Amino acid sequence: MGGIVVFGAGGRAGRAVTAEARTRGLTVTAVVREPTRYPDLGARGVTVVRGDVLDAGSVAGVAAGHVGAVHAVSPASGPDDGVDAVDPGFFVQAADALLDGLGTAGVARLVAVGLGANLLGTDGRMVLDDPVAFPSALRPFALAHTAGLDRLRERGDGPVDWVMLTPAGFLEHGGPRTGRYRVGGERVPGGAGESGERSDGDGAGRPWLSYADLAVAVVDEIEAPVRHRARVSVFNVRDGKR
Ligand SMILES: NC(=O)c1ccc[n+]([C@@H]2O[C@H](COP(=O)([O-])OP(=O)(O)OC[C@H]3O[C@@H](n4cnc5c(N)ncnc54)[C@H](OP(=O)(O)O)[C@@H]3O)[C@@H](O)[C@H]2O)c1
């Protein structure tokens, strides 16, 4: 199998995907906006290149010759990083540039990382629409992310076979690689009709995922695609010991 191209390779998910791909012997083209900011990224089998996920020409240029692409880009890294003031069109523009650029480059597979806030809660609303469960300051970011998912769906019949893997629950940076994960649908796992797991007072049964296991799921969907032109949730379930 040839290499993969990772957009957002300097971020938490991008680094985890790069590491997972390398353990499987896949070469990685690591796309960042400014390579001099990432002197630690280059390694055996990893080529760091400059690129912009918002520019279809840039995407096509860095993606050509790869078997698959990963979208692990985010315009904000957390609550203290301008998450309340993101460009509402960021993820739509990224979806368009990726679908157009990968199509031009002949790269037929895209695995995108989603956001749990647009999974459905037990009342049928998206989590982001529940003001009790979801902080209002994060809502603009979540809406922008959701618009990007909608754009992928609108353009679902094009040449690029995409899947969005949405981490359900807490995504733990530095958490262990178990090599396992569960795949759900549109609902937050644990609600009626999903995994059937129930949460107790210690958090046991709650959906959760490490970045490392997210990366396992991402690389699985590149190496052996199972889901096509769809969004699914990806999660593990706390056993009460963590
Ligand atoms: N529980 C959940 O649902 C959950 C939790 C956390 C994250 N996520 C999602 O997971 C994905 C990855 O998040 P993360 O935590 O890995 O984010 P992160 O650590 O902030 O990394 C995001 C990366 O995107 C890059 N980037 C920003 N704009 C770019 C552009 N125009 N072109 C190319 N790269 C660009 C940034 O690199 P440069 O600035 O150097 O370009 C940065 O390294 C996001 O979609 C995020 O929303 C979901």
From TrEMBL:
Residues 179-204 are annotated as: Disordered. It comes from Streptomyces monashensis. The lineage of its organism: Bacteria, Bacillati, Actinomycetota, Actinomycetes, Kitasatosporales. It comes from the Bacteria. One of its GO terms (molecular function) is oxidoreductase activity, acting on the CH-NH group of donors, NAD or NADP as acceptor. Signal peptide: none annotated. It holds the Pfam family NAD_binding_10. InterPro entries: NAD(P)-bd_dom, NAD(P)-bd_dom_sf, Polyketide_Oxido-like. Residues 8-189 form the NAD(P)-binding domain. This is Flavin reductase.
